[in-house]
Amino acid sequence: MAEQKVALITAGGSGMGAEAARRLAADGFKIGVLSSSGKGEALAAEFGGFGVTGSNQSNDDLKRLVDGAMERWGRVDALVNSAGHGPRKQILELTDEDWHAGIDVYFLNAVRPTRLVTPIMQKQKSGVIINISTAWAFEPSAMFPTSAVARAGLASFTKIFADTYAADNIRMNNVLPGWIDSLPATEERRDGVPMKRYGTSQEIAATISFLASDGAAYITGQNIRVDGGITRAI
C-alpha cells in the first residue's frame, strides 16, 4: 500500500489557498490548513483533515500546524504558502512600518513554515514547497509595491533554497498568478491580458497540483507564471 501523502496549506481559508487545499485533497493528500478566519478548520474537516486558526506571521501558530500533521500522519510531503494582503500606497508614502509589514506578509510567510518542515523533509528524503507569489515579482507594478519588492526577494530565497536542498530531494518553486478571479474584476485589467480574461483560482490550484506531483520531480528553483500572457515578454 502506498504511503499516505500529507500537504499543509497556510492562509488557506479562502481564495487561491483554499482552492489549492481542495485540489490537493482531491489528489489524495491528507491536508492541514492554517487560516486566520477559522474557515481553514471547516474546509479541512470536509476532507478528513485538520485546521488551525492562527496567523502565518506567528511561529507558534505555524508550529501547531506542523506538529498537528506529525501527530496525525508522521510526515509532511507538500507545503503551500499562500498570503494575505500587505500595505498599498504610493511608494514614498510607505513608512518603515509598512515595508516591514509587507515583508512579513509576502516574504516571511514562506520562510517561517519552511524552517519547520525542511528538517522533516530531509529525514524523509523528499518534499516539495510551493509559494504563491505574483506575476509582478519581476515586472513590478506601482499598484502593489510591497508585494512586488518582497516577492522579488522570495524569488532569490527560492533559488538559494533550491541550490541548498535539491540533494535532499526537496524542491521549492513559486507560482506567479496574474489577475485571478479572487480579485475584483475591471475591464481595464481584463483588456490588458492577452487572453482577455481573468484566470481562475482553480487554474492556480491545478498548477500547484502539478508541482506537488511526481510529474514535476525534476523542477525546482523556478518561478512559473500563470498570468494569461500578461508578462509574456519578460
Automatic annotation (TrEMBL):
<protein>
    <submittedName>
        <fullName>SDR family oxidoreductase</fullName>
    </submittedName>
</protein>
<comment type="similarity">
    <text>Belongs to the short-chain dehydrogenases/reductases (SDR) family.</text>
</comment>
<dbReference type="Pfam" id="PF13561">
    <property type="entry name" value="adh_short_C2"/>
</dbReference>
<dbReference type="InterPro" id="IPR050259">
    <property type="entry name" value="SDR"/>
</dbReference>
<dbReference type="InterPro" id="IPR036291">
    <property type="entry name" value="NAD(P)-bd_dom_sf"/>
</dbReference>
<dbReference type="InterPro" id="IPR002347">
    <property type="entry name" value="SDR_fam"/>
</dbReference>
